[in-house]
Amino acid sequence: MTANPTGNPERFEPVFCTIVPPFVLDTLAQSQDPALSGPARRTLQRDAFERTQRRLTTVIGAPAVAAPRAAGAGKPQRTVHDAEHRTDLPGRKVRGEGDEPGKDATVNRAYAGLGATFDVFFQHFGRDSIDGDGLPLTATVHYDEDYGNAFWNGEQMVFGDGDREIFLDFTIPVDVIGHELTHGVVQYTANLTYFGQPGALNESLADVFGSLIKQYTLGQTADEADWLIGAGLLAERVTGTALRSMKAPGTAYDDDVLGKDPQPATMDDYVRTGRDNGGVHINSGIPNHAFYLTAQALGGHAWERAGQIWYAVLTGGELAQDASFADFAKLTVAAARAAYGDGDELKAVQDAWAQVKVATS
User: Fold this and answer.
1) Cα separations (Å) of 194 from 64, 90, 108, 202, 227?
2) Which residues are catalytic?
3) Helix axis angle, 325-340 relative to 306-315, nearest 10°?
């Protein structure tokens, strides 16, 4: 596959990407408490079905329905649907672009999150929607019964309400919305293979830009941000703060039901596994931490310099679909040098990758 700087690859193969890793749901599904195991098992079954549907669509080549483009560059075209706890997508339309907020807070959060994601990519990266060409943004809320996940299925966002025992409403953290939509950006640009290190890079890029969207929404600098992914998603009974921590991978949760956050911060603890598509949600902690270290060293708003370097690599056309961490790291060094010369930015990038023990030369 060849990608170009405008973000339109010659071909792409959309994948099914969820915010909650399958190994977390696997753990919950084994609980002796039916209030925990029941929703987790149903969520796993639903995810498996959606994943198979996405694979069949890709293999068979079923044509996607061409949606109308936004009226003008730089203007989002958002539509939020209500699945009404069923699984037919997209569901009943409940809010379109420019409509006033309604009484459903979930609908309003989804609409606002789509807008924040669009704004960050357009205003700070010059990208007109996730495909770079004004693609309308579609979301479905209230998906299925007690569904404990959110996903990008190659065409739209889908949010569950959670089981209220472990997970709350998946529209609560705006970085979850940004994360899943960024999978769409990856799909239309580098289209990283969703397995092993390229899959972990795919997940990491979604976390990076999801975090930037959260920081933009809150008006935070790199120093002020918590660098947590999914803060506010875990229910009160869970001993944890979020799904992942970019600042301190492996510390997001340590719970008697969920277990301990397995993310490594450096290559010393890289996890070799066949689960989770070769550990895409686990080993993403390593490039996540490299971005955090880069942004922290540079200070200010993380989207201004660190984010620009990462975005340049994602959309520059040189990132292979099967890129390793080292491949990506070397490209960030080249991008930093090209944009900023031999200054603080280059040093910050080189030092960050050195700290997570990924070679850049």
Assistant:
1) 21, 24, 31, 7, 24
2) 180, 281
3) 120
